[in-house]
Amino acid sequence: MKFRAVSLAALIAVASPAVAFAQHSAHAAHAAAQAPELQAAPVSELVSEVNIPWTRFQLDNGLTVIVHEDRKAPVVAVSVWYNVGSKDEPAGSTGFAHLFEHLMFGGSENAPGSYLGRMRNLGPSNLNGTTWFDRTNYFQTVPTPALEQALFLESDRMGYLLGEVGQDVLDLQRGVVQNEKRQGDNQPYGMFEYAQLEALFPEGHPYRHSTIGSMADLDAASLETVRNWFRDNYGPNNAVVVLSGDIDEATARTLMNRYFGPIARGPVNTPAEADVPTLSAPIVATMHDRVANTRLTRSWAVPGLLSDDAVPLAVAAQVLGGLASSRLDTQLVRDEQSAVSVSASLSDFHRVGIFDISVDVKPGQDAAEVGRRLDAIVADFIANGPTEEEVSRVATQYVSRRIQSLEQVNGKANVLAEGQLYSGDPDHYKKELAEYASVTPAEVTTAMQRWLTRPVFDMTIAPGEREAYTEAAASPSGAAPAAAAEIERVARMPMPEIGQVPDLTFPAVERTRLSNGVEVVYAHVDTVPVTRVTVEFNAGYAADQADRLGAQAMMLDLLDEGTTSRDANQLAEEKERLGVSIGLGASMDRTSADLSTVTANLSPALTLLSDVVRNPAFAPAEVERIRATRLSGLASERTNPGAIASRALPPIIYGAQSPYGRSFTGSGDEATITGLTRADLVATHDAWIRPDNATIFVVSDLPLAQVTSQLEAAFGDWRAPSAAKGTKDFSAAIPAPRNRIVLIDRPQSPQSLIYGGAVLPVSGTDDLLALNAANVTLGSDFLSRINSDLRETKGWSYGVRGSVNTLEHRVPYIVNAPVQANRTGESIAALIAQYDRFLETEGVSPQELERTINGNTRSLAGGYETSGQILGALRSNALYGRPDDYQTTLASRTRALTADQMDAAARRDIHPDQFVWVVVGDASVVRPQLEALGLPIEEQPIR
Predict the structure, then answer these.
(1) Measuring CA to CA, how many Å separate 654 from each of 215, 587, 641, 736, 871?
(2) What's the pTM?
(3) Helical H segments across 243-302, by residue range
(4) Rounded to an integer, what distance in angstroms lies between the CA atom of residue 574 and that of residue 138?
(5) Which pick of 61, 104, 161, 243 has the fewest CB atoms within 10 Å?
């Protein structure tokens, strides 16, 4: 890594006022026939829609409890936030907060064994835990009849954990965490965070080290040290519990006192103080990584989330590089076309924040020159600030997204807990909303000039070989057996039983048609004032012709890069002004245009959606720009382990002539992307994006009649073009399966990705209930046989999954297993052994049957809690030919399943002796391991 000093302040002094923004404004003048500006609801009106009523009380042991009552569904979110994170770790103990989060899932004294195993029986949704600089939190949403058992389990690990934390548990989870670290480090640009934190924060600063920690410190974690972390930080008086959902304060008081009240107070953790450091001089660094594009970054340490400057700096980041219409997007990506992607963001923590800028340089451009241009744009922005219109768009977008995030009871629980933990006020979100609604351009400019004129950390990440990777020790010092005090166990009341969980109540599905025949499928949900619309087309990546791979994806990229009446900047600005999200994407089987908006802005949002879908300009200059971006994206895919594998496996198992025999990323290859003409893209749009190939799905708080009238205004006069509608041909035979290993060399990989699979003899339109239920035990669940073995027993992976990937036609079964490089061969052998054992002799056990049925049925209410989840159900029912009442029959049909039926379905369809195992890793490390397996090995280049 090379360092030199430079000055950004000098650039600010000579910046030409508003030159860059003048270019931005001029850009919008070129639309062919400019559309009228759409009118949005005032931000103040949107802010008035946001309210999370709550009550608060404290137990005698100091535990703070917040209750939010929401009776929309029979579920309750239990969210526990501990006032401790990685910033509180002493020297030599980095990664301990996160390591302990893992240990909290290993079982407790009165509920031994896997916490997740017990919780799975309750039917939770959103079950997990996370660690960050300032806090550690644990959360789950459970059916109301299961709440008492959830509180028993959560309180048992708060007060009665250590008797279950032994050396074997610590050693296992140490390995899992180190594999989580390898998995992150193995990604392109994966080593940047470490360099950034060490540059911005001085030695000894609480935020200087990453939450994942160092391999050496994780190796050194001893049993007694880890136990002391719990004693010092996990007392009830250092925690906040939020109960959000189908519960009231009186019930919460009774239950919280019953289960948490007897837990003794612990030491009080006063979160580590941390100043906002200023570099003594600018730092310029160069790091090399196996990446496709040079990335330029600029970073400053800034104040934390409680600072008066937090919102102004967040607004500045959005205007600079967060909005689709941002200064950097407009100038570097669209106008000058020297970058393929840009971003700017504020990561605000409790005590400090980090203001980040990132630019991925377009291949063939001079990175140094792009860097100088970047600095000039930033300098001009700091000197002259944003416009009032830009600030207003940021505020509208923020408030709209906040409203849409509050459908889930767990989302509301997180908002209340965060406010209480950091500011002592669960209503802190209201203060933030008010600040966004009132912030001025002058305040944004002042905040930038206060904090972003200080010396900058300027790092370039350039393509090249990585520096040597620091691995974990073969024999961690913390694994050495040492005398540990005997834990005195405390007897508790018996674990409460789970009450009768009612079956799912799914909204009634209604249908109508627009005057042009387009079908509308609708469900009414009024939890929040939000409407979600998907215009779906029977296309997807499978619609690409074999000699035009990538055409569907490139066509979609161009839909929001300009219409016949709005150019790309105008489209971006209109979306931001309305606070709407319009997403264009595809799966293998379907292409969709997705709209999410506060209902107050539905009419103009539909006008914008219609323009994007119906009237793309395919301007020649935009076609060439998107072509360059797609080519750059292809190069980036070849540096990412997951993308490399998902490009390799489909043509092997489906054959190149199958519509499914192409990359699951849909990105095509250089030859086809380079050869696509504007006429090709127009033809792709005409063949597939048309009203006689469309279905509109809607979930809204408005009644169907009101929604239909607005859809009619936006889409009712849409007529199909004269060109023939596209067709997909699945008649090509699927190749006979041939069990083997395909090795793809990716040097310097600390982890290997095992990506194995085969095409099953079933289709997505078949009844796959028994097969999927069997696969919960075999491959798809955290407690599945393969994950329990490779993660929870051997500690060789952060997580392993085997999935029935439901497509409309022939379905693949795919195993995704990132494992530490030196265990690659053993991991494949272990996977094969687990599949063989399940499919030959040891099928679903009585305990697994009970857990699967309970988990799959009791989780239904939480699984269809939001309008987005219900919209997804409407779409999947249509794709797979299911009846409208499919979701309401799931519970009874699942309860009727037997172990024999599950075993029979799995044994009929899954044949591991037909699997092709794609391995992406360092061939010099893994090939000798693979040779020991006795399977044929083919080497394939990255494609």
Answers:
(1) 41, 17, 21, 9, 30
(2) 0.92
(3) 249-259
(4) 38
(5) 61
